[in-house]
Specification:
Elements (H helix, E strand, L loop, with lengths): L5 H7 L1 H8 L13 H13 L5 H17 L1 H19 L3 H8 L2 H17 L18
Length: 137
């Protein structure tokens, strides 16, 4: 049996952590399909217009917890699956991230937003502007 470091183990069980830390998600994340698909489920859940603030706060608490315990693989996945969507939609989501992410998670959010803006690899909506939610995202 191969021993995985704790951070890698966390990453491999990201779907399980999402289901446990986001009760409103209803257990839809399937560990069998891997961390990125689980985070895709979390992304669609968070950005859906029917979500309440309390449901969105559960997701933000999950992000904080995951960034604290998950290591570099988890960090990269959260940036790609969740942060880039917030960069695209911007408001009101950027304000939610600012108000509810831990200081270190918020710094990570801002740092990668600037990197992505400079590289032009994803669309970054300017401060104070927003884009409508697209269910295909």
């Amino acid at each position: 049996m191969t021993h995985l470091p704790p951070a890698r183990t966390y990453y491999e069980k990201l779907a399980q952590h999402a289901n446990a830390l986001i009760p409103a998600l209803g257990g839809v994340c399937d560990e069998e399909y891997g961390p990125y698909l689980a985070l895709g489920d979390v992304r669609r859940f968070f950005f859906h217009p029917a979500r309440t603030l309390e449901e969105q706060k559960q997701v933000l608490a999950f992000i904080n917890h995951s960034l604290e315990h998950g290591g570099e693989y988890t960090e990269e996945a959260i940036i790609l699956e969740l942060f880039t969507a917030a960069y695209y939609y911007n408001e009101p989501f950027t304000s939610l991230f600012r108000d509810h992410l831990s200081p270190s998670a918020w710094t990570l959010f801002l740092t990668h937003r600037e990197i992505i803006r400079q590289r032009g690899s994803y669309i970054v909506t300017e401060e104070g502007q927003s884009r409508p939610y697209d269910k295909a995202v």
